[in-house]
Design goal:
12 helices, elongated, mainly alpha, Tetratricopeptide repeat-containing protein
């Protein structure tokens, strides 16, 4: 049965167990599935295919809205990638883990997993090496923007526009946000204010 009371310690217990497995890399693959069943009550392949709303109904307490279990599950999905054969299921878990942590970050959802952002940054960099769905790329833009990783934002926006021209208004809005940043924040990303202005004008002309 899933623990879901107000003083729930499941997320903490799960994270401690994950840390233990990470120290025993030879046995990680053999024992990781047992963690899903012990702490979350379901096999990983079932959990990774559940929509976000259904995951929340399982693991987020109605009264306290603590997303610690969601964060812990996302971390477990991401950690599995490092020990996998990089197959389709492992990649699905990696993307799901990213989306779970990104949702917590972008929507400022309460959780007690203080280091979840370390995993979020790690998985962002990992996914940047692969082709992913345009919906995930859009989310990645928002997260990279939150961390002021402007060169990543710039690269992804033009990838997205090749696949979805309807994104142009959002792209314009993002470049307008960047224009309002301190110049030093722009320049430390190896960009200039003039480059941003030129890109913004180019996008506005295309949106006429």
């Amino acid at each position: 049965m899933i623990k879901n009371d107000v003083k729930d310690t499941l997320a903490e217990e799960l994270l401690i167990s994950i840390e233990g497995l990470l120290k025993d890399t030879d046995n990680f693959k053999n024992n990781v599935e047992a963690l899903y069943k012990k702490y979350l009550g379901f096999p990983s392949e079932f959990l990774v295919k559940l929509p976000s709303e259904e995951l929340e109904s399982l693991f987020v307490h109605n009264r306290i809205k603590d997303y610690s279990k969601i964060a812990a599950l996302g971390i477990l999905f991401i950690d599995e990638w490092g020990f996998s054969t990089k197959d389709e299921m492992a990649f699905l878990k990696l993307k799901k883990g990213y989306l779970m942590l990104a949702d917590i970050y972008l929507n400022k959802k309460e959780n007690t997993v203080q280091y979840y952002e370390e995993y979020l940054i790690r998985v962002l960099n990992e996914l940047s090496e692969y082709e992913v769905e345009v919906s995930i790329k859009k989310s990645m833009v928002d997260v990279f923007l939150g961390y002021n990783k402007l060169s990543n934002v710039d690269d992804l926006i033009f990838e997205i526009l090749k696949q979805d021209t309807g994104y142009i208004e959002k792209a314009i809005n993002i470049y307008e946000q960047i224009m309002n940043l301190p110049i030093e924040d722009i320049e430390k990303n190896s960009m200039t204010i003039n480059e941003i202005k030129d890109t913004l004008e180019e996008l506005k002309l295309k949106n006429v």
